[in-house]
Amino acid sequence: MASLLKELPSMSTILSLYASISGLSMLIRTILNEMIPRGMRDLIAKNFSDFFATYFSSDFTFIIEDRWQAVENETFRAVEVYLPTKVGPSTKSLLIGTNDTNNIFAPPKPGVPVDVKVVDFFQGMHFEWTLCEKEAKKYYHRQKKFFELKCKSNYREQVMQSYLPYISKTAAAILNNRETLNICTYDNEDSTWESTVFKHPATFDTLAMDPDLKKFIIEDLDLFVQRKDYFQSVGRAWKRGYLLYGPPGTGKSTLVAAIANYLRFNIYDLQLQGVRNDAQLRRILTSTTNRSILLIEDIDCSTKSSRSRDRNKNPKEDHDDDDDEGSDQLDNKLSFDPGVTLSGLLNFIDGLWSSCGDERIIIFTTNYKEKLDPALLRPGRMDVHIYMGHCTPAAFRKLAFKYLGIKEHVLFKCIEDLIQSPVITPAEVAQHLMKRGEPQVALQSLIEFISMKEAEMVEKNEAKKDEQEVIKEEVGKQDEKQSKILTTSAYLT
């Protein structure tokens, strides 16, 4: 042992050798820097790095961000749905909660916390998932999320060809069989959609609507969801636009709820008044997901003018009404901000941006269809126009069965005769039927209410007729006076 230690070089010899090697390496680096251009050096360094990473590293990492270019990343969404089902004993922490505000006893659902590893196995392969966050661009005002998938480098092809498609199919099955739906509203501060559980009891079975109209809507929805290949073959985006119009209280919002429950689609409720400009509108709309309903209520209230771009009014009258803005600007701008245009909305629902998403229902509601610009009303934007009118006999019978539990009564004929004229809405009928538990009393009260409304309508029409007569008489006097002036002027001439 002692002889072996004597043969080892001394510390001073080792330091001297290290200094010689360091000096030589610095000399070689200086010569290379002088002789080889920077671009060539970077290429050589990259090739060496790739070589060592390929042959000496056995790990590979996939990055799946929440947005892909300008739209939501569907792969991220699929992983987000799939991964909570794979939380197991190896997961060190678990995110749980519920957004079901209607049921405080609802069991919490699992979620994946940030920076927590989730292990998954697929066809004998081992995978490690981690949800990460990082600062996003300033205009998002929120953290940007992404998943990291770590695996062996020789699994790369299987991940792309088998594993990720399997995740997408599994996530689609989970979404199709989901028990609860969400309704989402846009949070301008965080620049993201906020959701809560949507549990509206309305269905097509409970909907007080004309049976033929109800059948038409159901068949149209069924045909839409079954025709993906057809839409692709004719070169159209897979979407459908509905316009629900009619007086307040006729069940437009209830029909939206019934459609969502029937299709099992989430609802994105967009308030146009809160959108600042076209750029934000495009970002908001492209962040909605497939298999969803985009709801824009009271679209007529989002425009400065109810007049069409094809109006034939006197230009002078238009100028008098719109001193501050030109008529073209008036028709094309939305009321909440000069930067938001009607064309910005049209471009998403029927322009190039309409192709950014599949299997989407776009529903507009309005109380005054005549106020809408014709550009919004044409097919491709609002494909189906559904008039939600006053209560019909068939709708009344549906409401009577739902609220009173009766299918026939001696007073039904009287009520059906009274509601032939458009004097009462389904909401008013439902409100009266809810007030009384006894069918006889409830129906008698409803008859009195309808009769009172009809009398008020007659009185209002008479007053309006008298007002028109007065106006007509005043116009006649003005015309007669003007005629006398012209006659006198002609005589003097």
Would you kindly provide a written description of the structure presented here, covering whatever features stand out?
This protein is of the alpha/beta class. It has three domains: 59-179, no CATH class; 192-387, Rossmann fold, CATH 3.40.50.300; 393-475, no CATH class. 47% of the residues lie in helices and 19% in strands. It is built from 17 helices and 17 strands. Strands 10-9-12-13-16-11-17 form a seven-stranded mixed beta sheet, covered by helices on one side. Strands 1-8-7-6 form a four-stranded antiparallel beta sheet, with helices on one face. It has a two-stranded antiparallel ribbon with strand order 2-3. Helix 9 links the parallel strand 12 (266-269) and strand 13. Helix 14 runs parallel beside helix 16, helix 15 runs parallel beside helix 17 and helix 16 (426-435) runs antiparallel to helix 17. It starts with a helix and ends with a helix. Mean pLDDT is 78; it is low at 303-338. Keywords: ATP-binding, Hydrolase, Magnesium, Nucleotide-binding. GO terms for molecular function: ATP binding; ATP hydrolysis activity. Belongs to the AAA ATPase family. BCS1 subfamily. Residues 484-493 have a biased composition (Polar residues).
Strand % is 15-25%
Radius of gyration (Å): 35 Å
Sequence stretches where pLDDT stays below 50 over 5 or more residues:
303-338
CATH superfamily of the largest domain: P-loop containing nucleotide triphosphate hydrolases
CATH fold type of the largest domain: Rossmann fold
The CATH first-level class of the largest domain comes to Alpha Beta
